[in-house]
TrEMBL record, chains A, B:
Keywords: DNA-binding, Transcription, Transcription regulation. The lineage of its organism: Bacteria, Pseudomonadati, Verrucomicrobiota, Opitutia, Puniceicoccales. Transmembrane segments: none annotated. This is LacI family DNA-binding transcriptional regulator. InterPro entries: HTH_LacI, LacI/GalR-like_sensor, Lambda_DNA-bd_dom_sf, Peripla_BP_I.
Amino acid sequence: MVSLNRISEICGVSLGTVSKALSGKPGVGDATRERILSVAREHNYRPNRLVHAIQRGRSMMVGVTCSQFDDEFAGNIVAGMFEALYQDHYDAMVIQWERSVQDGVRALSNLAGRRVDGILMFPPAAYPEGAYLDELRSFPNPIVVVDQTWPGCGYDLVGSQDVEGAFAATEHLIELGHRRIAHLGFLHGSTGRDRLKGFQDAMIRHGVAIHEKWLRDLQSYPSEEPYALTRELLSGPDRPTAIMAFNDEVALQALAAAADLGLSVPGDLSITGFGDLSVVRHVRPQITTVTQDPREIGRRAAKLLIKRIEEKHENQAAPAAMQDRLPARLLVRQSTGPCPTAT
Amino acid sequence: MVSLNRISEICGVSLGTVSKALSGKPGVGDATRERILSVAREHNYRPNRLVHAIQRGRSMMVGVTCSQFDDEFAGNIVAGMFEALYQDHYDAMVIQWERSVQDGVRALSNLAGRRVDGILMFPPAAYPEGAYLDELRSFPNPIVVVDQTWPGCGYDLVGSQDVEGAFAATEHLIELGHRRIAHLGFLHGSTGRDRLKGFQDAMIRHGVAIHEKWLRDLQSYPSEEPYALTRELLSGPDRPTAIMAFNDEVALQALAAAADLGLSVPGDLSITGFGDLSVVRHVRPQITTVTQDPREIGRRAAKLLIKRIEEKHENQAAPAAMQDRLPARLLVRQSTGPCPTAT
DNA sequence: CTGAAAGCGCTTACAG
DNA sequence: CTGAAAGCGCTTACAG
């Protein structure tokens, strides 16, 4: 790539003149400007944005850490982030979280070394600890956490109303007459714990007994574990009539397990998911679920981060961390139905 | 973030000495080095990698353009890329392709402005044209295209053996006795055209007639169109006994359409997918499909790009563009079975 | 209108 | 062992 210097040589003018001409600043003769512009075009000159970043002390680059892209939810969050970042002329440097946790210090210090103006963090269930967390805390610019948080996190969060969504799903099952409701949860993460809380709240509110034996906690996820746990749950003599699953993918596996056991859904068993992935519409029965708006979560997180960056640049005092949780609404489809009459 | 300059002030030594001390170069007294290191640590100093990039003429950053992250296939490709990039100490700047095509010149010129050392391109079906393609051609560094290509592309490609995979799937249906085989294709993209070719090759090889009326071309994808097209295909008096779908998501919708029409799969209808997404294992019947290895595709693409970058840096002549296509194997599951006896 | 100089944050020969 | 200077690719006051 040609440099300004090279162009100034070619045109026989000084560096400063070329700079002014190319950035459209006044104070350059028309003929000179024309000549410079045409030479620049001919050589395909692009101003080096790394230099801008150094000079201004702002890279206009944001770090995005994400544990996995391979599902629709994460993908849409990231897509929403990109949308908002692009609008405000920020670029995104992406690092994969698993890696960054494993080899955390290097990945994070990379981000600091590149002088990113902030970090959008989509954390995995295994939240950061130890040296990694120290490195994170030493990062000098704003951080916004997305979807999931952890004890003592202290950063801004944009996520979903997990408690409320789970409450609505549970209430729906109760209103259908179900009393024997299992919960297939994922308690390693804050969203899973929130959803369990929504479940418990609804059960208590409606005076329905919670049976420990029907409460499960996924240990490794994603995996085939939800399928196995569901089979186990449904194989005993004393089985639940409804299962509230941590999310759509878990619900999908629960559905498969029910099918393999010859149980009809929703005839024998009702199942709810969480997230409204497109796949739950393409499956029969279509799964009753709770909507989330990952795209909007991503957008809002990026906008909030940009706001924090601006605030910091104007030397405003850092405001207290906030939580922005988007509504999660119940979407009734085909996988839930009236409780089968007890035998 | 403190600068070297600031640290040299604090320590009362020159810039050069600080630089040498922090980068572990010889020629600094032990006491001085200790003092500098401790001050740097205390102030959380991170060398500014943007400066390195300018000085070396290498940013150690690669641009990744991707149309969508919201599916497992794309997500794993990107994950594979990150894995290989990280190993060789490259970072990734990611831009979303839809955006970059729409507003193409800005996004690409961004990449050039950031001086990325190369581009990993995961193109959408709507391949680049016009001003965008011009901008792409003017990009001075290596480019590797992934999964899908376009007429006159001219860049290295890492993808799958789409023709062979589709051939195997079709042959499988033929061997099950099917003769009335529909193809739900997506001919806007090269992968779709390749899969159609594999289909045609197998049909011709086995002397099975291809019926135009059972050949469909999805216009908008992703969408609900596959569902609608399948219903149409299956509703006439003269319906196929097997459908070969462009990919797993299309197959999933075909399965839903069949279920809604009361057709049993594979009793009345056989369906094949392509891609081996995890969801096709969690659905009943599990879908017969063709495996792809997106993670390895991503890894290889990144490695190839890095190789090209090194070659270029050693002033080697640019080698001819190559295609690296990974095996796509047939995976028989539950959605394909013997052709029902004609009535 | 044009140029020379300082500076952003570094590294790397080269003096002392 | 330590420092001063040049240079990477720019921008921005400030002279002329």
